[in-house]
Amino acid sequence: MPEIRANGLDIDYTTEGEGPPLLLLHAATSSATEDWAAQRPLLRSHFRLFLPDARGHAATRWDTDRGWSHAMLLEDAVALADALGLERFHVGGLSMGAGTALSLAITQPQRVISAVVAAVGVEKEPRSSVARRLMDPDRIERDDPPWAERLARRHDPVQGEGAWKKLLVAIRDDTVAQRLPTAAELRRARVPILLAYGDRDPWVPLEPAVKLRRQLPDARLFVAPGVGHVVVAERPSAFNTAMLQFLRDTARS
């Protein structure tokens, strides 16, 4: 996987396919190649995909002295687009990555052609409560050793032994403290946006998702029945159809 210097980081990323650029951002503790595995074969036939590892994740090193925040993820994404020479691009994100994708639509509407925003939470609860419960390394080691082992295998080889624990604590603390976008800021996201949710998502209940669609100037809502938080993987066929149709409609408009 190539690396590129952006915002003081050596960002590790995968690129594949041909066509308009599409930046795909992953969820917390994961990686873009894993989260978007079910979409990549379809999308790379239509787009040039860029799949970066976020700071502190997988092969993108994190300088713990600089701290970690969702605001930094936005800075990283803008700097990455600059370094890659992407003047205008589509963006997709899942969960943590969806927050960054939405922030790009708000702050960079002149550059973002469209945004696919899957399982984003823009209300404090239950987002903060779930983060406190799930992003607890001691609980994970005690109650879910297989997940602890997967996190260590994914992050520690590059970041150092025990790095996954520091990362989870940083994500948890900033999720609780993070300032979420206001209604006025959401109205500035004047680009086409596809919101995608599962109707059984414990992080993001459906009612706030419907409210978010109403607050955005140009948004459509896809809801997958019987699906939880990882809508891109739990119901990939239906999600892929909705995503590709949205991107095609955006290209024609």
**Overall domain count:** 1
Helix content: 40-55%
Q: What is the highest CATH level, the class?
A: Alpha Beta
* Major pleated sheet: 8 strands, mixed
Q: How much is the average pLDDT? A: 93
What is the strand arrangement across the widest sheet? 1-2-4-3-5-6-7-8
Oligomeric state of the chains present here: single chain
The stretches of 5 or more residues where confidence is low (pLDDT under 50) are none
Question: Topology as H/E string?
Answer: EEEHHEHEHEHHHHHEHEHH
CATH superfamily: Alpha/Beta hydrolase fold, catalytic domain
| Strand count | 8
Structure, explained:
This protein is α/β, with parallel strands linked by helices and 253 residues long. It contains twelve helices and eight strands. The chain has a single domain (3-126, 181-252), classed as Alpha/Beta hydrolase fold, catalytic domain (Rossmann fold), CATH 3.40.50.1820. An eight-stranded mixed β-sheet has the order 1-2-4-3-5-6-7-8, with helices on both faces. It is globular and about 50 Å long. The N and C termini lie far apart (34 Å).
